[in-house]
Amino acid sequence: MKMEQPYLLFLGDAADPLAAKVAQGIKTWRPEFCVGQFRLENCNADTGLKDLSIKQAVDLGAKTLVIGVANRGGIISEAWIDVLLEALDAGMDIASGLHNKLVDVPALVAAAEKNDCSLFDVRYPTQQYPVASGVKRSGKRLLTVGTDCSVGKMYTSLAIEKEMQSQGIDADFRATGQTGILITGDGVSVDCVVADFIAGAIEEISPDNSPEHWDVIEGQGSLFHASFAGVTMGLIHGSQPDALVLCHEPTREHMRGLPTYSLPDIQTCIDANLTAARLTNPDVCCIGISVNTSAMDEQEAMSYMDMLETELNLPVVDPFRQGVSRLVEQLKGE
Amino acid sequence: MKMEQPYLLFLGDAADPLAAKVAQGIKTWRPEFCVGQFRLENCNADTGLKDLSIKQAVDLGAKTLVIGVANRGGIISEAWIDVLLEALDAGMDIASGLHNKLVDVPALVAAAEKNDCSLFDVRYPTQQYPVASGVKRSGKRLLTVGTDCSVGKMYTSLAIEKEMQSQGIDADFRATGQTGILITGDGVSVDCVVADFIAGAIEEISPDNSPEHWDVIEGQGSLFHASFAGVTMGLIHGSQPDALVLCHEPTREHMRGLPTYSLPDIQTCIDANLTAARLTNPDVCCIGISVNTSAMDEQEAMSYMDMLETELNLPVVDPFRQGVSRLVEQLKGE
């Protein structure tokens, strides 16, 4: 499931900017992949890219139309179909991370076949993954873990990849969720893999590499999330991480979707993740904390992070406010 | 996927008794489900049940032919097809836990449709499971966990169910693997569920129950198995166990399938399982150890178990040699 670049970002009839956050993520992290955006008349989002027709996009070399918008229920809207058909007829592939599948829409399947184009439903793995071998791989690996779901693991991982590359470190982000896959064009939506193959899928997307190379692997869920910790556990073991970065959102009142579950203590969470990770890499260490302070004002955020840094004796950063150079600094000499 | 009883156990052309261990397990744990066995001429296994023709089995009320034999590769042998077709034509359902599916054999599908019979591939879940809610359920739950895969978790669970029932305790074994499902006719093959739904599937097969009722849930894998720990983690969280029994095979030299991984220390393994289980049931405790000493002689086994019991200060039993009454004893007053 390797998507071809460059992309035309489809924003459709996004109700608000948040509905187009996938498109915004692609534009933020892979601007070089994007030739422009396509918006329907009632679209309330804007990535700032040039608005293009299908024909203009193809003329600029676009290979894949990426559905960068989500609506309630994750369905493929009737209102989008004409544009999607036009894109297929113009020779573009289509990629989607929605719950409902492109391949379940007969008109799209027929048009894709006719034009010899591909439909990528990146949420659903199409390949068979092996059972994890647990055999140590060459190269280095950093994994983001979290106190909870949706606390900024993907954002942090992409920021670390970018910072590493800007410092001349050979690094690749490895996507484990649909948004990450759409951004980079590759990866595995690990929570949709059959349970026996969770760790094996991660071994597959982060293969042997040169000794100085870093894979920056996007974490999922949390060891402390009662619904999804199995995914997290397998992801940790398959990653064989040398370094962990713990991601946290400090204003959350309970675990996401679980009103009776409170968030874990941060040191307890670090220790649990290190214990799990040591099974496949005894040398793992936690190099710092990434905090999503978007719900705090600047002063509140800074004093919270100062407090945490003193308490944990580890670098604490908000990647959005300050970048992640202090985290990458920790890896020098690893 | 509720299979109908009683069963005709199909031993086919089993190469040796071990190849028919599924049939033997059904006969051991659910003799009341079995009307007899069916063997081909070159069968080298025998459950001790009466040999029946398909017609005789149907006359005795058999509703399901259960494939109780495994061959290398888990395939459905050509040599079996005539008998399977005869069973379908006689109105029986067929159930299999093999890797290859009954529903992928066109002749069987056609015969099942013609006769309005069902084909159960119990290894492959056919229903959608929900994301786990983590909400505490009524009733009590015991979960078997292990230092490794294939150390006797199913056997121990079935022995505990039987012992509880013989003591007048209301108890049900809950199957989480294909053999357990074939034995009881119900359950979920949890390692074949999509990763997001591991814990949710276990919540579903062990629903609210009366306050004094025990579900005895079959564990899978091990938190210390680098290939499968994700399954184990989700299974623990979904079970919300009140009591854990740790299963162990003391002669194993490395983790199953992982030559470079040694077995965990038993106390470390107990502690890790309790820590994981406390997330969804803070009151969980470990009530004892079940040791599979089949590779030891009687004296060696007894002195090993004595040693372990002194070390851990918990009851240590081999269910096959001694039964599990000392484990069930621990639950009185829970």
Automatic annotation (TrEMBL), chains A, B:
SUPFAM superfamilies of this UniProt entry? P-loop containing nucleoside triphosphate hydrolases
Q: Which residues form the D-glutamate N-acetyltransferase-like N-terminal domain?
A: 50-125
Using the record's annotation, list all stretches that form the D-glutamate N-acetyltransferase-like C-terminal domain: 131-328
PANTHER family cross-referenced by the UniProt entry: DUF1611 DOMAIN-CONTAINING PROTEIN, GLL3100 PROTEIN
**NCBIfam families to which the protein is assigned, alphabetical:** DgcN
This one is known as: DUF1611 domain-containing protein
Phylogenetic classification of the source organism: Bacteria, Pseudomonadati, Pseudomonadota, Gammaproteobacteria, Vibrionales
